[in-house]
Amino acid sequence: MLAKADIQIGGSRPWDMRFNAPGVPEAALAHGNLGLGETYMDGAWDADELDQFFYKLISAKIPRHIKPLKILPHIIKARYLNRQTKKRAWDVGEAHYDLGNDFYGAMLDSRMTYTCGYWKDARDLEEAQVAKLDLICRKLQLQPGMRLLDIGCGWGSLMAHAAEHYGVDAVGVTISREQADWATAYYPHLSLDFRLMDYRDINEKFDRIASVGMFEHVGPKNYRTFMRIAHRCLNPGGLFLLHTIGRNRRRSFPDPWIDKYIFPNGEVPSVGMIGDSVDNLFVVEDVHNFGADYEKTLIAWHDNFEKAWPRFEDELGYRFYRMWRYYLLSCAGAFRARDIQLWQWVLSKDGVQGVYPRIV
Fold first, then answer.
1. Average pLDDT of 110-136?
2. Is 116 a catalytic residue?
3. Which pTM value belongs to this model?
4. Integer Cα distance of 142 and 236 in angstroms
5. Which of 44, 178, 225, 267 could be stapled to 39 by a disulfide with Cβ–Cβ 3.0 to 4.6 Å?
């Protein structure tokens, strides 16, 4: 199977695979990416260019030929249970986003923007993130005095950009205490309100709504609920921008390694699943795919992570280093292979008058 992907075992090319211990093929065949990822974390195998290894593996569709029966319980839970209840929603905040503001500050841009940058005219990560934030503001047609809701606001970069450059008042909700505390302390001079709360508890009116990189944590059992809440909170004539990673197939399941080690209870939607969730609630004005830009963003984050690692090595340890490297570079390879996407959906509550202007 690896030969079909132009990957050699023990080869000399940077994407070739080197075994450092026995048991890697057995783990991968039995547990899929969970087994492959855990053996990498344990140091049992290496590839110099891990992103290119995954690009070749995924482009050749090798994962589709693996039938890992030992992760069947994970598949059943993902398909039939609601893994993103109010109680479970806080898991990802504690496990991932609360790793520490110093850690994320070293990896991300100066605004702590932990979502895909927009690289159309950008020369580096800083410019790509500013371009993304401004793209969202322009798509939302923000005007001074408007009230903006950011569902899953992260460290507040969108809210701050919208307040500074478009004169809006903004409310953001997050399930990460670290994010809420950092953002509140960092932007005391702006009209921003950061709240530690679940999106299902929001019951106020806003002129515009954005959700950037949070829908991946909502879960299929809650997509319709999420959209109903957004619809309820949006004033007549309002716009809602949804920025989310997306998958190409509806009938798939969350990656078990990502689920266990990076984003507990996360799941990426398909176009059809989002379409079902907005049915008879919103008018879809625009869908913009710039998934190829996520590869560049992840590589930039990885470069920053590598440079900063000596600061965190004693605290986090070598297994964490290999885990984080696997996370960033395997995802970069998947985006490079166009196996996953990045979409911005512009939704209107009532339909805009005339043709919604395409903004890129």
1. 98
2. no
3. 0.93
4. 15
5. 44
